[in-house]
């Protein structure tokens, strides 16, 4: 009988994972619709957003967060440097490491692109959801953050 419980649990979690993936993909497409961050690729946008959220990071740290090789992130950062969206400098504690930071231009691009999307999303939340649903969503965001970090 325990095998059936385990199988049932596995089926439920797999179905939930499938549904979650579809919903996240749809939400991601909706959030990305409209104007992008100055026509940047998804990996370039991710790097900018990661730097905005977490501050100055090494290329290795950024590559880990993105789930890509450091060489790939290095190429992404080189492109972002050429556009003026990021700056880099040697780590004063370890000159073998390069630290990457958002430039003023990068911050401005993120503010412009993100502000429009956040305004639209905030309007949908305010117009379409009851206070108890927003409270549920707050809890869900915490769970999604745990999933993303796992």
Give your account of this protein's structure.
This protein is mostly helical and 150 residues long. The chain has two domains: 1-33; 40-149, Arc Repressor Mutant, subunit A (Orthogonal Bundle), CATH 1.10.10.10. Helix content is 73%, strand content 11%. The chain has six helices and three strands; from the N terminus they run ααβααββαα. The chain has helices at 2-32, 42-54, 59-66, 70-83, 104-128, 131-149, and strands at residues 57-58, 86-91, 94-102. Strands 1-3-2 form a three-stranded antiparallel sheet. β2 and β3 (94-102) form a beta hairpin. α3 (59-66) packs across α4. The longest helix is centred in the N-terminal third of the chain and has 31 residues, at 2-32. The two termini are 31 Å apart.
Key phrases:
Arc Repressor Mutant, subunit A; 150 residues; 2 domains; 6 helices; mainly alpha
Task: Note the overall shape.
Answer: globular
Please tell me the overall pLDDT: 87
Please name the CATH topology of the largest domain.
Answer: Arc Repressor Mutant, subunit A
Helix content: over 70%
Task: Note the beta-strand portion.
Answer: 5-15%
Number of domains: 2
* SS-derived structural category: mainly alpha
Q: Please tell me how large the radius of gyration is.
A: 19 Å
Under CATH at level 1, the class of the largest domain stands as Mainly Alpha
Supply the number of helical segments. Answer: 6
The total of beta strands comes to: 3
N-to-C series of helices and strands: HHEHHEEHH
Distance between the termini: 31 Å
Could you say what the CATH architecture of the largest domain is? Orthogonal Bundle
CATH homologous superfamily identity of the largest domain: Winged helix-like DNA-binding domain superfamily/Winged helix DNA-binding domain
Spatial strand arrangement across the major sheet: 1-3-2
Largest sheet: 3 strands, antiparallel
């Amino acid at each position: 009988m325990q095998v059936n419980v385990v199988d049932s649990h596995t089926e439920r979690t797999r179905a939930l994972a499938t549904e979650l993936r579809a919903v996240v993909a749809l939400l991601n497409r909706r959030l990305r619709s409209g104007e992008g961050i100055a026509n940047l690729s998804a990996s370039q946008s991710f790097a900018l957003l990661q730097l905005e959220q977490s501050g100055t990071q090494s290329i290795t740290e950024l590559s880990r967060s993105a789930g890509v090789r450091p060489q790939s992130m290095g190429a992404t950062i080189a492109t972002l440097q050429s556009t003026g969206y990021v700056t880099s400098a040697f780590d004063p504690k370890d000159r073998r490491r390069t630290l990457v930071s958002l430039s003023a231009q990068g911050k401005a691009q993120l503010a412009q692109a993100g502000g429009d999307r956040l305004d639209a999303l905030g309007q949908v939340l305010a117009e379409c959801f009851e206070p108890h649903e927003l409270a549920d969503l707050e809890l869900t965001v915490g769970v999604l953050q745990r999933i993303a970090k796992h």
